[in-house]
Write a structure and sequence with these properties.
172 residues, globular, three-stranded antiparallel β-sheet, single chain, alpha/beta
Length: 172
């Protein structure tokens, strides 16, 4: 069974990780978080669940305003060939979350260690960071170092990279 949001918060507290929780209406995209950002300090994030041609899985977390060249991302993270988005079924199976609730905290549900955690170097500036607590009706703010400790505590040593930026005119 996947970890629940309350169990996640209890695990953070038991690990000595301080967090601030902001509850809000369900949001499914970065754009939908805009009305709630005044309530939240720190860096906002976007999270992508991706797979490569060989079926390797990646969870990429970046600043919400990051433009990512998905055509070149595989080169930066050591994936086999271009990346595609993992299905909602695969996301639920491997990370225990649904679309709109993708979060770095979801690696807590990847007990088999099948997902590579990728963090954008621009997210690791020292500011506090915001991620959903496994549901899209709340946001948790944690310190960068506490996020790293949490990820490592789940057995997911994060790959921290400068994500490729698309040339002007490309979507990202």
């Amino acid at each position: 069974m996947p970890v629940t949001p309350d169990e996640l918060c209890a695990r953070l507290a038991a690990s000595g990780i301080a967090f601030h929780r902001t509850d809000h209406p369900a949001v499914f995209t970065v754009a939908e978080t805009a009305p709630h950002r005044d309530l939240m300090i720190g860096l906002q994030t976007k999270n992508l669940f991706l797979k490569d041609k060989k079926g390797r899985l990646f969870l990429v977390s970046a600043r919400s305003d990051a433009r990512i060249d998905l055509k070149r991302l595989h080169e930066r993270i050591g994936a086999s060939g271009r990346l595609s988005f993992g299905s909602a079924e695969l996301l639920l199976e491997k990370l225990g979350v649904t679309p709109g609730s993708v979060t770095a905290f979801a690696v807590v549900n990847d007990r088999a260690g099948e997902v590579t955690m990728v963090l954008d170097a621009q997210l690791m500036t020292g500011e506090e960071v915001n991620f959903h607590p496994l549901v899209n009706t709340a946001t948790l703010r944690v310190r960068r170092d506490d996020l790293l400790a949490f990820l490592r505590g789940t057995g997911h040593e994060p790959l921290i990279v400068d994500l490729p930026v698309p040339a002007d005119g490309q979507s990202g």
